[in-house]
Amino acid sequence: MPDRPVPPPAEDPEEKREGTLVTNSPDPAKADTAVADDRELSEAGSQLSTTPLEAPEEGQSVPGSFGGVRKPGLGGALAWTWRECVGWARWFWRQLTSMRVALILLFLLSFGAIPGSLIPQTGIDELKVEEFREAHETLSPIYDKLGLFNVYSSVWFSAIYILLFVSLIGCIVPRTWQFVGQLRGRPPRAPRRLDRLPAYATWRTEADPEEVREVALGLLKKRRFRADRAGDAVSAEKGFLREAGNLIFHVALIVILVAFGIGQLYKYEGGKLIVQGDGFSNTLTQFDDFKPGSLFDTDDLPPFSFTLDKFSGTYEQSGPQRGTPRTFEADVTYTESPDAAPKKRTIEVNRPLEIDGSKVYLISHGYAPVVTVRDARGEVAFSGPVPLLPRDANLTSTGAIKVLDGYRDKDGEKTQLGFQAFFVPTFAGEGKGDMFSQFPALDFPVLALNAYHGSLGVDSGLPQNVYQLDTTKMTEFKDENGELLKQRMLPGETMELPDGMGSVTFEKKIEEWASFQVSHQPGSGLALTGAVAAIAGLAGSLFIQRRRVWVRAVRGDDGVTVVEMAGLGRSESAKLPEELAELAGDLHDRAPTAAEPDAVPSEGAEK
């Protein structure tokens, strides 16, 4: 197959002829032909994408002004102001719906989500937020003003979210209509100069031009090109899935944003700490904390319930990963409604219990030492497991024991007791450091208490943290040295309160508790669908190439058919010349190269 012809070098417009400098004047016919060729090439490569073209502003008499000429008088001023406002609105809309701004907003949305992952959020864990406030007294007021403790509900995050939503819709709608128009249209006609296209091949054949065009049309359709005959050439194009993938990707982003919005508006999530043997009903009063969406109605809570029958956990016993959790399992008995039969299920980490569109996740666990408090008369004022919150990976735990009612001192007066509790499941031993656990399992449990009496402040009407003891209105119990009464106890040991005020016994039974999160995310399935569609659309837009091919077959002056093939892609790619070469090879098999005519010998040559 002959190589692509090389165009002859351009003529020098200034030539010296017989010592005289002669300037060649341009040929008007050639200039018109060049302009027509450029226009045809431009049309051949047009609409290879659905990117909207920005039309120039009309009627701008002054740079930066959309109002045009301002006529005198009030009417002229109002008309000019109206045109100016409309012009700026159109300019702002074009900027907002441009792909560049959409990418910027998408980046800002991703960047704005970073604080939500690094800073504790009130909608997830208020205790960690309070701990952060106490540890960072200077930063906390700044974070409050910026809404960093509640990122996803802040004004600035919502503004980015809404602007991105509008930008994507405004970008997709015109591209979709343009893409539909391309699908309904026909491939553009072949340019006059196919040899100016990046991929080109030509040869001469004895086959009839009409036959060549018919064969080319069949070959292109067989390769799933959308082909059409126009004049002396066949036009074909392929790769519409690239633009379809691009549109699918952007539509999928909108679907994800809609799913996120639905999830935020109609979701609910709440936490509940349950001691082994206790239960939970999915009602508002049963939650330790509850965060509903803006449009969620608490009457729509599914009426399920469950009981924590047993919690078990195993840990690595030796090696560099000693103490690392291996399994956490919560055996529960649940009912989907008050009239339903009970069922058994084991909840594990990342394997939630799914009931009526809600999921019950196992998120944490700890220990609840069983404590018995007796008053001065020896009567039981409090008895039961006390959940303590872990502070490290080895489950060093802290909390508070609060005796609100039922306690009387030696004079028979009612008062309240409070104990600061520190618990380690595996104590290092006396003289081997402070109260820090060495292992998360119950190998050597020790409970340490500090004792107070007075008012717990629960009657003030202000909410309190059940795991913290407010000692502002309480008095310390003193030991024999006049210091705060405190004692470390093993299971079965008792701490006697001074002056016969009673006692506290650390029972030999230690319960385990598990913390569950009950959540309902109605947009999860829609978000997953959008994510899968976005990946598929992005893959299509990246790996599918939009290209066009033209085949021209005309009879030359010598009666031999001249076949020309050319291809044009949206972007430079080695695949286009390869594909054109394969097409040319298939067509060449049907219309082979014609034999060169015998050379005519010159005069005087030997015969």
Walkthrough of the structure:
With 607 residues, this protein is an alpha+beta fold. The chain has three domains: 97-176; 190-238 and 544-587, TATA-Binding Protein (2-Layer Sandwich), CATH 3.30.310.80; 267-518, no CATH class. The chain has eleven helices and 24 strands. The chain has helices spanning 28-44, 73-96, 99-112, 114-118, 126-135, 139-146, 155-184, 209-222, 240-266, 524-543, 575-590, and strands at 14-17, 20-23, 199-205, 226-230, 233-238, 268-275, 279-281, 289-292, 305-315, 325-335, 343-348, 353-355, 358-374, 380-385, 389-390, 397-403, 416-424, 446-454, 474-476, 486-489, 494-496, 503-520, 547-555, 561-569. Strands 6, 8, 12, 13, 14, 21 and 22 form a seven-stranded antiparallel β-sheet that branches. Strands 15, 16, 17, 18, 19 and 20 form a six-stranded antiparallel β-sheet that branches. A five-stranded antiparallel β-sheet has the order 3-24-23-5-4, with helices on one face. α9 (240-266) packs antiparallel against α10 (524-543). It starts with 13 loop residues before the first strand and ends in a 17-residue tail after the last helix. Mean pLDDT is 83; it is low at 1-26, 54-63 and 602-607.
Brief summary:
It is a multi-pass membrane protein. The protein is of the alpha+beta class.
Q: What's the pLDDT, averaged over the residues?
A: 83
Rg, alpha carbons: 41 Å
Assembly level:
single chain
Number of strands: 24
Tell me the structural class.
alpha+beta
Distance between the termini: 32 Å
Portion in helices: 25-40%
Number of helices: 11
Could you tell me the strand content as a percent range?
Answer: 25-35%
Global outline? elongated
Low-confidence stretches: 1-26, 54-63, 602-607
Number of domains: 3
